Amino acid sequence: MQAVKIGLVLILFSWPTFAVQTQTICQAPLHVAYNDWPPYSWSDEVGEPLGLDVDLLKAFARRVGCVLEFDKMPARRSHQLMHLGKVDIMMGASKTAEREEYAHFSVPYRLEQVGLFSIDNGGVVSLGSWQQVLDSSLKLLVPQAGWYGEAYESSKRSLAMHNQLVESPDLLKSVQMLSRGRAELAIGDALSLPFIASQHEKVHLFRHPLRLTESDIHLMFSRATFDEARVRAFNDAIRGAAEDGEIASLLLKWEQISLSRIEGVSQKSRGSDEPIWILAD
Known about the structure:
Keywords: Signal. By secondary structure, the protein is α/β, with parallel strands linked by helices.
């Protein structure tokens, strides 16, 4: 009986300690900076943040027990304020040595892919290799800013010489030019390009099997406000969400939205059933 009493006392004294530890991970709301990059992040008509990365971060924060406050601002200002400790978290980040000077990085929570697209039922055969693109003589729309892989960079001059390269200022313009027949193919982010096409231009795109690049995507945490315990807590949350399927579920949801059919558009295969996600290590 005495042993039972001692055991109960130990449980009662150890439980509050655990509760305090979980509460101290986030004593105040965490400030999240984001900008318009649909379908990963943007804001609705009343200013509420939306998107895949927003949903994922909310899921991770819920597991950690943290409250989030989202602030929309240009990317450059986000990095400046993170350096000063006035922004705690940024989403959808690629890891670089320069950024590591002022930010911790989470384990990767998804992949960013650059894909190849054409108008659905536009008569373009499925393309699975970069050599097929070069041999096709088809014109290719490429946004002026961005990294689209070694294969494209090494072929850029040749594409231009053979009048196959058409540059555009951004993804929206690429979609508009593609729909108007300025080119037969377009490259861009594997989720963002079809999302812009379906949601803004009411055009459905065919996604070819070819992938030009794949890279890990992380959360960034300000070194001024995040200690190792906080980083570890979020990494554990990401791993937990990967293991129980929550990340996969949210990624599938937003992939379906991005590749959704417009009424009256054909039901042609979208070109690849390969999911666009990564499970955290």
